[in-house]
Amino acid sequence: GVVKKILVIPGDGIGQEVTAWGQKVLVSIAQNYKHEFTFEEGIMGHVAIEATGEPLPDETLEKARNSDAILFGAIGHAKYDNDPTLKVRPEQGLLKIRKELGLYANLRPIKLFDELLEASSIKPEILRGSDILFFRELTGDVYFGEKKRSDDRQSASDLMIYHRYEVERIARKAYEAARTRRNKLCSVDKANVLEASRLWREVMQEVAKDYPDVETEHMFIDNAAMQLIKDPKRFDVVVTGNLFGDILTDEASQIAGSMGMLASASVGDSTGFYEPIHGSAHDIAGKGIANPLAAILSAALMLDISFGLKTESQRVIKAVEATLRQGFRTMDIANKHTENGFIMGTDAMGAKVLENLN
Ligand code: IPM
Ligand code: MN
What we know:
Oligomer: single chain
Bound molecules: 3-isopropylmalic acid, manganese (II) ion
Family: Belongs to the isocitrate and isopropylmalate dehydrogenases family. LeuB type 1 subfamily.
Radius of gyration: 20 Å
Structural class: alpha/beta
CATH topology of the largest domain: Isopropylmalate Dehydrogenase
Cofactor: Mn(2+); Mg(2+)
Order of helices and strands: EHEHHEHHEHEEEHEHEHEHEEHHEEH
Function: Catalyzes the oxidation of 3-carboxy-2-hydroxy-4-methylpentanoate (3-isopropylmalate) to 3-carboxy-4-methyl-2-oxopentanoate. The product decarboxylates to 4-methyl-2 oxopentanoate.
Subunit structure: Homodimer.
Helix content: 40-55%
Pathway: Amino-acid biosynthesis; L-leucine biosynthesis; L-leucine from 3-methyl-2-oxobutanoate: step 3/4
């Protein structure tokens, strides 16, 4: 077996409830397959601000650097959403750890479990067979460009900036992935208006020459947002910038039935970082009704991508599939079509997956 050190950062809101299940799944896998996983815990986000005044304390960052992989929950708190004047904000913790660890590629696989065909608000015949892998650039763009507020406070700006090397490295990662899938890549930008997007497209076209076996398509973000709902099956690998990727993948979550189902992997220079794409959901935090499947599937991604444990990763995905097939649902994936289904809370759902794992 392998020996790995995993840092768990539950973060805020439902992150606390769902991350515990990602960890339990990892413990169970370690037992079944004779691996040795050790766990440490770190704080980040609102909980860290409350405890230390900082959204990402140095101690957490240090632990992150010393771990083989990180399992993260969610970040954010209503208090900040309703008060834009607050200077220290939970999200800064997440942005900082992405930057510090060089996590420039955010992989967001969108795959519909057949059992959830009816849970989406999109027609089943449009959805069936959809399988998209998003590559969202994660450490550049308007997220990290210079932020300004004029002296009279009457205007504000965020600089949208990309450097050639930033586009090139994510382009290559996306192309390599396309080669292991259906050999199709769609790059999304707004090159008809934005200079940063024109650089993006220029670099994509150059890198494309090294991958003549992959069919490349360029699409404007507005059109992509429409095509995604109209005909999701036309997409295989989609690569895009930080902001467009943030928005497009929330939209794409409807293709997978719910935000509660989607896991993501952030990789780059070092330690991989695994997190659900959903947020802290303070409206349901503490109620024990959040869907733990995105956190569990994030653990599955960790096994595959950071540890190269493909069999173990597939075992987790199969356990999730089996749980859905048995009719078990959390609130977010239940609907009027759920016949003979059992709507349950976070812990009951997590326990079902564990049962199916053993
Ligand atoms: C995400 C989140 C973050 C982002 C926030 C919490 C900073 O929405 O991971 O998609 O915008 O990247
Ligand atoms: Mn987001």
